[in-house]
Amino acid sequence: MSQRISRRSSKIIAAAALMAATASAAALPAHAAPAKTYAAPLSHSTAAPAELLSDVRITSHFDLAAGQMPENIALLPDGAADVTFAKGRQIARITPRGSLDVLATLPEPADGGVDTPVLGFPLTTGLVHAPDGTTYVLYATGTADLTGLWRLRPGRAPKRVAALPANGLPNGLALDRHSKRLYITDSVLGTVWTVPLSGGRPTAWSTAPELAPTGFLGANGAKVHDGALWVTNLDKGTLLRIPIRYGDRAGVPRVKATGLAGIDDFAFTGRGGEVLAALNAPNKVVRIRPDGTSTTVLDAGDGLQNPTSVAVRGKEVYVLSAAYTTATDPNLLRARLRGHSHR
Question: Which of 283, 320, 306 is closest to 73 using CA atoms?
């Protein structure tokens, strides 16, 4: 794989370096030395705690020079996985056999996306599948004509179905199958938007201060679980629970876990409120228990390269790494949950 990095790729690495510095400063006491940066080996590791994960291995490697920095993942019933490539403006499918098929490439903004907040290039982010097989994806370009929620159907060109503010950065995407509504986190504006599956005008569902950034990116990953929208805040290192009240009103956010510098996307394991979360700059995946305590279960020794998102299907765990700051081997890692009974 070529390791040459384009000018636009260097922007994401520079921006992510800022994230890394911010996260490290938040995580370390004033007298502590920064942690070393490790280049992850390509070999497999069994470093994950035996009581949680087994069979840890990297199953797919992506092309950094082509902008294949995987940002988000959605699993299909047939064993395939769809991913967004942050800089590549693409949605791609990884088949059960491991081959990669590009499903769609979103249009490039006329100015190249130089006004995209924070990053300065067009960014493909959140991804979900609806029950009817439709795929929804978020796109941030810094332009009013392209920023927003896009819909992808087999055999059709991608179509924007909801416009979002060009000065924001839509990032996390979650589907409430009961209400048939989508929730969208904006990492720059500190807002959660909601829009029906049919598309239309988004509504600002929550602008709680817990969602705001403190210098880089705020509200990030999002999942609907147990009557609430769960959201991470990358800058603040927090996991939040926001109740979904009657009439689709947002309840008061409650901080469920702290001290998670660089937290990106996450997934519930199926064991109550237990969560697996990606910590991007720290290069870790952590297990967050319902009481808010966390333990590292994967790290650079397992092949992580700035993990961005986690997905769980039954006993199978999927972790994407984008290599934003490591600039080495963006990949898909898989592992198995031990003693898991989720169906």
Answer: 320
